[in-house]
Design goal:
The chain is of the alpha/beta class. It has 14 helices and 6 strands. α6 crosses α9 and α9 (177-194) packs across α11 (212-223).
């Protein structure tokens, strides 16, 4: 990697090689919108401004793996720390002379050590301004999702009634608590699928679903992704991105308000390749790949409280 004109590589399905991202960035950027795709940035050389711009402009759902330089070359330390803070890498690896694609693939499929924190950090990186109260609600839901399967049990664990819990999420302009609980459970399903050879049925039982059909139906309805695709394409941010797009498309993500969620990207319409519209819902055409969730609709589409055109 050190001998290439750029320190950036692309890691994508079927995860057999690492093509260089350089002058062909404009051509390769659409490929980063594919599910299970990420960038690998080797900081062993002098980080280039162009590389930094590419990393910072990567589409939502695209993972980032940073490879640190040798300890003797980490100068100044503060600039490395700032780079890490602004780029939000999925993983930070020690210096490698020539990282093997199989090693990087293992890193890509590895679950976050702290899902609640990873979830809120990703939302911040995607441009959502989340209050302390909203952050706490999301983190608690993610934390309890390891053992709780119903919204009634979640409300009880938080010492609230179901109605009071719903009002708290609504006050923070967040989607319903049941949607966050489903999301976190589905992410945990994806972690198991990508890190074991267990069947979908076995994973469904392990994660509290009654059968594989119920799991598959809920995953597709909530994120637009099938369990077979969640296993095939590695990582988890692209699945979260699918959920965000579904929530935004149905008007359940709302901007405005000092403590509400605010999308940084504006004016863009949701585009899901291979999807067909049925009423107000988007359904994947049979046999199509997961949709491109790299572009979220802007605040004008999301604001249901102002009588906008977005519908639940």
């Amino acid at each position: 990697m050190h001998s290439s004109p750029t320190a950036l590589k692309m890691l994508a399905f079927p995860y057999t090689h690492l093509p260089t991202v350089g002058g062909a960035w404009k051509k390769m950027r659409p490929l980063l919108k594919a599910p299970g795709t990420g960038l690998v940035w080797d900081l062993g050389g002098e980080p280039k401004e162009e590389d930094y711009r590419v990393v910072n402009s990567r589409p939502g759902g695209a993972a980032l793996i940073l490879i640190l330089p040798r300890s003797s070359r980490i100068q100044p330390t503060r600039s490395i720390l700032q780079l890490i803070q602004t780029t939000r890498p999925n993983a930070i690896l020690p210096s490698h002379q020539v990282p093997h694609v199989d090693h990087l693939t293992q890193v890509l499929r590895r679950p976050p050590t702290d899902l609640p924190s990873a979830l809120t950090e990703y939302l911040g990186w995607r441009g959502f301004s989340i209050s302390r109260g909203a952050r706490q609600l999301i983190r608690q839901t993610a934390e309890f999702s390891t053992e709780i399967t119903s919204i009634g049990a979640l409300a009880k664990r938080m010492y609230l009634s179901r109605r009071a819990l719903g009002r708290r999420f609504e006050a923070e302009l967040l989607p319903a608590p049941s949607h966050w609980l489903h999301l976190c459970r589905l992410l945990r399903v994806a972690f198991r699928l990508q890190n074991s050879d267990d069947s979908v049925l076995a994973v469904a039982f392990q994660c509290g679903y009654t059968d594989g059909f119920s799991l598959s139906n809920q995953m597709r309805r909530m994120t637009g992704v099938r369990p077979s695709e969640a296993r095939k394409y590695l990582g988890w941010e692209w699945i979260l991105e699918g959920w965000l797009c579904r929530e935004a498309e149905h008007g359940r993500l709302r901007p405005q308000g000092a403590s509400g969620a605010l999308l940084a990207q504006t004016g863009a319409q949701l585009q899901c390749p291979g999807a067909s519209k049925t009423g107000s819902k988007t359904e994947l055409a049979e046999g199509c790949s997961p949709p491109d969730h790299s572009v979220l609709p802007g605040p004008a589409i999301l604001d249901r409280r102002r009588g906008n055109t977005a519908k639940r």
